[in-house]
Write a structure and sequence with these properties.
CATH topology: HIT family, subunit A
Radius of gyration: 16 Å
Structural class: alpha+beta
Strand content: 15-25%
CATH superfamily: HIT-like
CATH architecture: 2-Layer Sandwich
Strand order of the largest sheet: 1-2-3-5-4
Order of helices and strands: HEEEHEEH
Number of domains: 1
Largest sheet: 5 strands, antiparallel
Number of strands: 5
Length: 149
């Protein structure tokens, strides 16, 4: 495990939350990413500079994955997606973080990753899904906050 470092104000995830803050502990935070096509796209961010899961202790890994799975469960319960995508990249910022993204067969990129090529002729479905998820977003935010309080 790497030693804890002081926050780096040049780092965007040290200088800010990285999205709309939903829950925070001393070790992690959960934020809404603010993606228009994926309104419930959520990130679970480790607060200190570590790049890999193996940089954490076993207890820290367990805690981080407990939070990731809690977000996934709330997404499944409230949003009923066809699939949940979990991804951990951290290629740009030195903070281990997980993307928790509810997916539907009619979303803009399915079956590709949300960073992949967009499917054609889905604009009506994308707009309808965006509106449907946006209508559930307040309940989703409350449930995340409650689950992780």
């Amino acid at each position: 495990m790497q030693p804890l470092a002081a926050p780096d104000r040049a780092c965007p995830l040290c200088a800010g939350d990285g999205g709309t803050l939903l829950a925070r502990s001393h070790a992690w935070r959960v934020v809404l990413a603010g993606d228009a096509d994926y309104p419930a796209f959520t990130r679970v961010i480790w607060n200190t500079h570590v790049a890999e899961m193996s940089d954490l202790t076993a207890a820290q890994r367990d805690e981080l994955m407990r939070v990731v799975l809690a977000v996934e469960v709330v997404q499944r319960e409230l949003l009923s997606p066809d699939k949940i995508n979990l991804a951990s990249f951290g290629n740009v910022v030195p903070h281990l973080h997980w993307h928790v993204i509810p997916r539907w067969r009619d979303d803009r990129h399915f079956p590709e990753p949300v960073w992949g090529s967009a499917a054609r002729d889905r604009e009506a479905a994308v707009q309808a899904r965006r509106a449907a998820v946006a209508g559930k977003l307040d309940a989703y935010l409350r449930a995340i906050r409650q689950r992780l309080a």
